[in-house]
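Re: the 101-residue chain
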Amino acid sequence: MTAQYAAAERIQEISLDRVVLYPHLQGILGEKYCSANRIIVLQDTPSEIRVAMPERSLPCVDEIRKILPRSKSIAPCLADEIDIEWVFMRGYDLYNLNHSH
């Protein structure tokens, strides 16, 4: 467990204030996988995929590395679990009930 926390200390922590959930980005890793592990795909370039995740999902980084092409790296970012939940709620809110105006 200590190694996991040491690794978490080196990972950038970000705010998700203006982050929007894009299903086509989530589909890169699988929408169900991202939803189950609370992972938000922020950016996908030919050389890197950038994801936001809570600390409890850090072990998923190894799983994600296995499915990505060798030429593509993963850039995990830590985000607050409550912020992640809000992004998911806003992203899948079909009737615009949870958006603050």
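Residues 81-91 form the longest helix (11 residues).
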